[in-house]
Design brief:
It is built from 19 helices and no strands. The protein has helices spanning 20-42, 49-58, 71-83, 87-100, 102-112, 115-126, 129-134, 141-161, 164-180, 187-197, 208-219, 222-229, 234-242, 253-267, 271-281, 287-291, 294-306, 319-330, 338-361. The longest helix has 24 residues, at 338-361.
Length: 362
């Protein structure tokens, strides 16, 4: 599926020899991680309300809590074990997990389109404001992002090879993701849609391995459900309440506009439409990226019509969008159309510049 590409120039660096894109990404991650570490150590950032709550949970490790699964508390417990009850102890897992998420993104981008796309997808994701916040604040999103990216990599391998080890890796990644954030459940319909409409991989649905992977992944919810049943189903009732199903089909134009504005703010108004453009334009040639992005983004877009949707909720829907964007606009750079060239440069520079301003201003 690798595509021939032209040399990158005109504000984008030249292509290094094969194998060097991974080294470039590693160096970039080391530098960015050092900046994030410096921000956590020396910037006067008080804990957010969520971080303080998760810290309190980490002092009492359990299988579940009032409104979340246990992974975020366990991560902070490990951070505190290493660095004590300090800002670094609480936020070190965010720094590490966000950096680690670049690995499966790079490896999957390399599988889909080649090393260059892997580099730009992982690098641009790390330099986008939405994902930058994951690297300095310990919420459920850093471990969730890593689980989602790992699940994508395992699923792509499993669909291609049908190896039991890949299906098992997928089951573990999805299971841990469910213990982190219940939005991980979106992986099931996205994967099903991809397999159903992929002539090459549809036959996997007749095999026992993917269904075993589903069953194993759902087993990770067993301790959460056991805990919740002993505490009056408080976790379940809270998360069902967040769906606002009881509100019915109410249209709130203000919430819709706020959602769109939030997405433009955290992903920039240049990158979002170009990413959607690439995903839709390549939907037949690249069903994988389409099915793990557009249904998620579309769901939250429609959900925002009914009520408030937080800006970070569609986070994982952008992961495969980076692959589509990098393949369509960066791998083939410079495009003949001067306007597309300018938009491509802006889509790379604006998020990085916004991230620089954010980190520099802390």
């Amino acid at each position: 599926m690798n595509a021939n590409s032209q040399p990158i120039h005109d504000a984008l660096p030249a292509s290094p020899p094969r194998g060097r894109w991974g080294l470039r990404l590693f160096i970039f991650l080391v530098l960015l991680t050092a900046v994030r570490l410096a921000v956590v150590l020396w910037a006067p950032l008080d804990l957010t309300g969520d971080e303080a709550e998760y810290w309190d949970w980490s002092r009492h490790p359990d299988w579940c809590y009032f409104n979340k699964g246990p992974i975020v508390a366990w991560c902070i417990w490990l951070g505190r074990l290493a660095f004590g009850d300090t800002a670094l102890g609480i936020r070190a897992p965010a720094i590490l997990l966000t950096a680690l998420a670049a690995a499966p993104v790079y490896l999957l981008g390399r599988r889909l389109y080649g090393e260059r796309v892997g580099f730009w997808s992982a690098g641009l994701m790390q330099a986008t404001p939405l994902f930058t916040a994951n690297g300095i604040g310990m919420t459920i999103d850093p471990p969730f992002l890593l689980c989602w990216a790992a699940a994508l990599l395992f699923f792509h391998e499993a669909a291609a090879s049908n190896r039991a080890s890949a299906w098992l890796g997928l089951a573990v990644a999805v299971g841990l993701g469910l213990m982190t954030k219940y939005i991980m459940a979106f992986f099931y319909p996205c994967a099903l849609g991809y397999l159903l409409l992929s002539r090459e991989h549809r036959r996997r649905l007749a095999d026992w391995r993917p269904w075993a992977a589903v069953a194993i992944s759902l087993l990770f919810l067993a301790p959460i459900l056991a805990w919740d049943s002993q505490h009056g189903w408080v976790n379940l009732r809270h998360n069902v309440g967040l769906t606002r199903v009881g509100a019915g089909a109410v249209v709130r134009a203000g919430a819709f506009a706020e959602f769109l504005g939030g997405q433009f703010a955290v992903m920039t108004p240049v990158l979002v439409p170009m990413m959607i453009w690439a995903l839709v334009a390549q939907r037949k040639a690249d069903r994988f990226c389409f099915w793990f992005s557009i249904p998620i983004l579309g769901f939250f877009l429609l959900k925002s019509v009914q009520g408030e949707v937080y800006a970070n909720w569609p986070l994982v829907g952008y992961v495969t969008g980076f692959f589509a964007f990098a393949h369509r606009f960066i791998e083939t750079y410079p495009q003949p159309n001067i306007h597309v060239r300018r938009l491509t440069r802006a889509a790379v520079i604006v998020p990085a510049a916004a991230t620089g301003v954010i980190l520099g201003g802390l």
